[in-house]
């Protein structure tokens, strides 16, 4: 299967769309509010919206990729046709992947619990 | 039919970092449609609505392709203008590559305010695909009723209470209206059946001339169901025949899925907060009326599709 075409790829210069600050003047913004880097929303992290996190169980996974198909946030990363990882920078913790998984290979775990475990481990060290 | 193994290797063109709510159906639908475009160059335009607002917050774009911003009411006009410009430039040799043109609009932007713009674009015969992301209300401005909102649904402008039990009118059948344009391809689909969405998106993209796809794209916020249950809820919409899957190819109507048994509409209504009031004692007649409407529309659809008009066995 081919990748997306050359014109799309060349759209981005990678430098022209600057981060916006509230003290910016209109002439510091790109003309007509154009955005020159396709897909740059990727640098905006929505992972901190999450209160529960999907955790993958490798042993149980049968690589059906339903989780990849149904993630609204493109946060299931597949590689070579197999489950690779969750993108926790963007995953919002909606729980859809866990629900569609036919073999319960995804557990939804509270972020608070994960924090507590992390804290406990810190204290031990 | 490609497998998920193969499809997962296609470059992602709607990336994470957009600001749609957690679990929003639009993210799933858009990813499925763009995935079906595979390697083609695409230009996307959106009618204002949750999708556009959440995916193009300056200075960010979630679209890894060309994207043109426009207003609420004119996605059809904008995308057809871009397609016409492309054809002119191509003729002059100024553009070499091939492009596909896709417009996404919400039900408000498609059934209601953008309908004349869409109708014109379809009638002029542009080589475009228009995808309606139907979540059955104006969600982006806080859940107002649209002509796609089903009878009985509680919205902020059809509030269920002492005066009315939710929306009073039946849904508009937009897919049939689009079919009446006699364009090469019209389809209705739902995300629970990803193969159906994929096949229809591919057909729509490949056909020469205008194509229209109406996708049921649930909004957990406006429908008030448990967010992870999106596939289940959409499946119930199809199984209860609330949202039949069909296509109209060069004027020929075809049913794509026939439920094996009669699933009463309560199954679809019950898990959703927007229909909760319908289950209060004394409101049985309201559900009965909704069921009758569904059954009669189903029989009419079967007839159009050249099938025996009968209800599924109970
Ligand atoms: C002419 C005009 N009127 C009103 C609005 C405000 N507005 C923005 S989005 C929206 C609702 C969109 O609803 P829909 O098309 O169903 O998309 P959804 O958000 O539900 O996906 C409205 C009313 C606008 N942008 N332009
Ligand atoms: S849905 Fe479950 S089994 Fe399928 S790939 Fe994802 S984790 Fe693995
Ligand atoms: S929890 Fe939701 S956002 Fe996160 S990976 Fe699963 S489906 Fe995607
Ligand atoms: S309000 Fe509904 S349609 Fe809008 S982003 Fe949230 S879930 Fe999606
Ligand atoms: Mg809507």
Task: Describe the protein's architecture and organization.
The complex is a heterodimer of chains A (125) and B (314). By secondary structure, chain A is an alpha+beta fold. Chain A has a domain at 46-124: 2-Layer Sandwich (Alpha-Beta Plaits), CATH 3.30.70.20. Helices cover 23% and strands 15% of the residues of chain A. Chain A has a two-stranded antiparallel ribbon with strand order 1-4. In chain A, strands 2-3 form a two-stranded antiparallel sheet. In chain A, a hairpin with a 2-residue loop joins strand 2 and strand 3. The longest helix of chain A has 14 residues, at 111-124. The radius of gyration of chain A is 19 Å and the shape is flat. The N and C termini of chain A lie far apart (49 Å). Chain B has one domain: Rossmann fold (3-Layer(aba) Sandwich), CATH 3.40.50. In chain B, strands 2-1-3-4-6-5-7-8 form an eight-stranded mixed β-sheet, sandwiched between helices. Chain B is globular, with a radius of gyration of 19 Å. Bound molecules: thiamine diphosphate, iron/sulfur cluster (3 copies) and magnesium ion (MG). Magnesium ion is lined by residues 106-108, 135, 137-139 of chain B. One iron/sulfur cluster is lined by residues 56, 61-67, 83, 101, 103, 105-106 of chain A.
Average predicted confidence as pLDDT of chain A? 86
- What portion of residues of chain B belong to β-strands? 5-15%
Ligands (ions, cofactors included): thiamine diphosphate, iron/sulfur cluster, magnesium ion
Low-confidence stretches of chain A: 1-15
Write down the secondary-structure element order of chain B: HHEHEHEHHEHEHEHHEEHH
Question: If you compute it from the alpha carbons, what radius of gyration of chain A comes out, rounded to the nearest whole angstrom?
Answer: 19 Å
Helix content of chain A: 10-25%
CATH names the topology of chain B as Rossmann fold
Shape estimate of chain B: globular
Q: Largest interface, with Cβ-Cβ < 8 Å?
A: A-B, 57 and 55 residues
CATH class placement of chain B: Alpha Beta
Order of helices and strands of chain A: HEHEEHEH
Number of strands of chain A: 4
Number of discrete helical segments of chain A: 4
CATH T-level fold name of the domain at 46-124 in chain A: Alpha-Beta Plaits
Largest sheet of chain A: 2 strands, antiparallel
Using the alpha-carbon principal axes, give the shape of chain A: flat
Which architecture of the domain at 46-124 in chain A does the CATH hierarchy give at level 2?
Answer: 2-Layer Sandwich
Structural class of chain B: alpha/beta
Architecture of chain B in CATH?
3-Layer(aba) Sandwich
CATH top level class name of the domain at 46-124 in chain A: Alpha Beta
